[in-house]
Amino acid sequence: MDYQGRTVVITGGTGGLGTAVVDALLAAGATCHIPYLVEAEAQAFRHRDNKAVTLYPHVNLTDEDAVGGFYQQVPNLWASIHLAGGFAAGGIRTAGKSVLASQLDVNVVTCYLCCRGAVLGIAANAGGRIVNVAARPALEWRSGAGMAAYTASKAAVAALTVALAEEVAKDGILVNAVAPSILDTPANRKSMPQADHASWPKVEEVAQTILFLASPPTR
Q1: Which end of the chain is more exposed for a tag (fewer CB within 10 A), N or C?
Q2: pLDDT tens over the chain, length 219 residues
Q3: If you write DSSP's letter for every residue of the chain in order, what string do you get?
């Protein structure tokens, strides 16, 4: 997985999984462009001073103009990896329209707009790669009981990925997604201290899968 000379966008790149993905991309020789909203994450981001990393503050990924403006600043785009998203638990009795709208915004709208920005950015080059993040409930719907809004939003991401893959394959743009279960991050461990953390997929393992899907040899 040689990324020398390749430019990659990573949304959510300052988060737990994002940091692992950026670690792996930098080790493979990539140049990374990372939009972010949360200043505290950016300040703590261990690659913030790396010359191969460019951070873009205050990019609202639910805003079409903001996303379009961001992608226009990224030169020679090869791959766009979309890790930005959010989780909301709660059964349908407690999760009303506002929860659903929020989950659609943070998971589906961000993914759609970034996919669109990536396709427009990659089109001028010789093909490229897009990788989204769905979730296990997006494919195994019954496992989403108690978090229907989240499940619906991630199922939409999965459907978007497959439809878009069919649409842009002729342009040499390959679109894939990963669908992990609960990731082993400090935040998830804190929220579920009694869970079997050893069974959770490690962010470094998921990062390697994402790098494979976004790599030039993948056909």
Answers
A1: C
A2: 899 999 999 999 999 999 999 999 999 999 999 999 999 999 999 999 999 999 999 999 999 999 999 999 999 999 999 999 998 989 999 999 999 999 999 999 999 999 999 999 997 667 999 999 999 999 999 999 999 999 999 999 999 999 999 999 999 999 999 999 877 777 777 767 777 777 787 889 999 999 999 999 998
A3: ---TT-EEEEETTTSHHHHHHHHHHHHTT-EEEEEES-HHHHHH-TTTT-TTEEEEET--TT-HHHHHHHHHTS-SEEEEEE---------TTT--HHHHHHHIIIIIIHHHHHHHHHHHHHTTSS-EEEEEE--HHHHSGGGGTT-HHHHHHHHHHHHHHHHHHHHHGGGTEEEEEE--SS-B-HHHHHH-TTS-GGGSPBHHHHHHHHHHHHSTT--
**Six-digit token string for 177:** 């997604």
Tokens standing for residue 116: 């669109």
